[in-house]
Amino acid sequence: MDDAEKRQAIGSWLSGPRSAAEDMGADFGYRGQRLGLPETGPGSVAPVGRRIAALVIDWLMCQLIAYGLFVGGDGRTLGLWTMGVFFVMSLLLVGTLGLTPGKRIMRIRVVAQNGARLGFGAVVARSVLLCLVIPAVMMDRDTRGLHERVARAVEVRF
User: Fold this and answer.
1) How far is residue 125 from each of residues 2, 43, 87, 88, measured CA to CA in Å?
2) Is-contact 109 153, C-beta < 8 A?
């Protein structure tokens, strides 16, 4: 193996399996193509940055609510109360409106893969797995977390 081949092998290892597969001619398409969603614009898969920003907005809002309603001066239980408020907010708002305040600000919505509203069971499963955090960061090539794949949901722009 000469130096150029060694650099190519190391480069493909560092850039990840997707890049290596694309270098070999594999075509993965754009995010959401397998789901029948448009590449850009309304109805396309929401970018990860917008989704994280929406999550931060929602978490901070829930933290303020938890502090004001439940915790008061005792900061030791703030995290648990914040998680509880976040779970209830996610359950109620995603289940009825398809979005939370943070998602509304970032102009994204949670819908079923077929474009309909999520059912109650799917919303419960999605909310529980989202609160566990780890399933949410395990993403597929459409940047959907495990919590969304289990619920057969996708976050789209509107």
Assistant:
1) 52, 23, 11, 13
2) no
Task: Identify the helix (H) or strand (E) that includes residue 147.
Answer: helix 146-151
Integer Cα distance of 82 and 136 in angstroms: 18
Mean pLDDT of 66-86: 88
pLDDT of 28 reads 73
pLDDT at res. 74: 76
Question: In the Cβ-directed half-sphere of 108, how many Cα atoms lie within 13 Å?
Answer: 23
Q: Is residue 155 over pLDDT 90?
A: yes
CA distances from 68 to 43, 55, 60, 92 (A): 36, 20, 12, 20
Amino acid at 23: D
